[in-house]
Design goal:
35% helix, globular
Length: 233
């Protein structure tokens, strides 16, 4: 579904990614792992057209998307849950959700307000509250719901549970597990390796803008040296 090959990218004259390659198949959950500053967010920003690659190719469903504006890439079927949440602070929960609703591919069972509220009942309790007044956990639920309202083929989450209370983190992981069971393709960045190995099919570890290891959850869990060497655990 998503194929990134030989990607180099950065900011101004400073390169952050070097010849980076990875892929996400239909129905897969794939992670990007690594310490802070290793290039994970830059990779996602490059995929989404927020940062323009200097080399390499990015294709989605067999069509090149590198160099397209972000909104065109989103319209192809990629939904982003950005780091830092970035809710619309002055819009209510309802307005945040309906602002992004689209079903461009005529999905038979599309995401709607009702489906999102069934996934996150707490949002129903805050339905008419402005985004700025929600807790951090509620905001994260809202931005996941907002991305789902675009009915994405691929859902990308950058730091999915960072800074959240344990109970909220558990709720987010449960949500992602249900999405996987429904066949949703997911590209995921998070630091909770234990939770990631329970949900993800494959992992790519980044070190200084390069992929230094890739493999299955079983392989990652079996080699404790990987976490110590590359993830700071």
């Amino acid at each position: 579904m998503l194929q990134v090959s030989g990607l180099s990218s950065g900011y101004g004259g400073s390169e952050v990614l070097f010849d980076l390659s990875f892929d996400v198949g239909a129905g897969e959950v794939v992670t990007l792992l690594g310490r802070n500053g290793m290039g994970k967010t830059t990779t996602i920003s490059s995929v989404m057209g927020i940062v323009r690659p200097s080399a390499g190719t990015i294709s989605f469903n067999g069509e090149p998307v590198a160099g397209l504006p972000s909104y065109r890439i989103a319209q192809r079927g990629i939904g982003l849950v950005p780091e830092g949440r970035q809710v619309f602070p002055n819009l209510t929960v309802r307005e945040n959700l309906v602002a992004t609703w689209a079903n461009r591919r005529a999905t038979p069972h599309p995401w709607t307000l009702e489906r999102v509220l069934a996934m996150f009942p707490r949002l129903g309790e805050r339905f008419d509250h402005p985004g700025a007044l929600l807790s951090g956990g509620e905001q994260q639920m809202l931005v996941i719901g907002r991305a789902l309202m675009t009915n994405p083929l691929l859902l990308i989450l950058d730091e999915a549970t960072e800074g959240l209370a344990p109970l909220v983190r558990a709720e987010i992981w449960s949500c992602l597990g249900r999405l996987k069971a429904e066949g949703q393709s997911i590209l995921l960045v998070d630091k909770n390796v234990q939770a990631l190995t329970r949900i993800a099919d494959r992992h790519f570890i980044l070190e200084k803008g390069r992929v230094v290891w890739s493999g299955s959850s079983d392989a990652l869990a079996a080699d404790s040296s990987l976490s110590h060497r590359y993830l700071g655990i």
